[in-house]
Amino acid sequence: MPIRDAVASDLPAIAALIHALADYEHLSHEVTFDEAELGRWLFGPDAAAHATLATDGDDEVVGLALWYVTFSTFTGRPGIWLEDLFVLPKARASGHGRALLEALMQRTEGRLEWAVLDWNRPAIEFYERLGARPVEGWTRYRWTAPPA
After folding, report:
1. Structural domain total, the chain
2. Within a 10 A sphere around the Cβ of 23, how many other Cβ atoms?
3. Which of 13, 102, 8 is nearest to 50 (CA)?
4. N or C: which end of the chain has fewer CB within 10 A?
5. Which of 24, 68, 127, 141 is catalytic?
6. Residue 144's pLDDT band (boundaries 50, 70, 90)?
């Protein structure tokens, strides 16, 4: 599976994959990013996140792992939070998702963590086949800043 770090010229493909993911998750109404601003946070001097891409044999981008570095005080090591993992339906079951996760695991000596929607059985089953398990006893919270 061809896996590579995204570059600024990949921004339209990244944006399209984010929109496709939101559509799959029935959350399109929550996608409000400005593409230029997204590019600033992915490729600018103060980049806050990174994108790793899966491509098919024709170098078409078919998968995305959007992630950022975290830190665990308990392990004393940095880790990775996987914000989004998405593979286009036409490219699923071809190893792209696994290859993206394996590429991220090679980038950390700590934890690779993510959230999955409760109803997304295909994703949950995929993660469990890889050996990932839910973190019991934790509830995810979100506090959103008011609009500027």
Report:
1. 1
2. 11
3. 8
4. C
5. 127
6. confident
Residue 142 resides in a domain: no
DSSP assignment letter at 95: S
Q: CATH code at 79?
A: 3.40.630.30
Would you say residue 93 has pLDDT above 80? yes
Q: Say whether 141 is catalytic.
A: no
Please report whether residue 88 resides in a domain.
yes
If you search the block for the tokens 């995204």, which residue do you land on? Answer: 6
Tell me the per-residue pLDDT of 20-72, one tens digit each, with 9 for 90 and over: 999 999 999 999 999 999 999 999 999 999 999 999 988 899 999 999 999 99
How many CB atoms neighbour CB 74 within 10 A?
7
Tokens of 56: 């098919």
Question: Which range marks the domain in which residue 27 is found?
Answer: 3-130
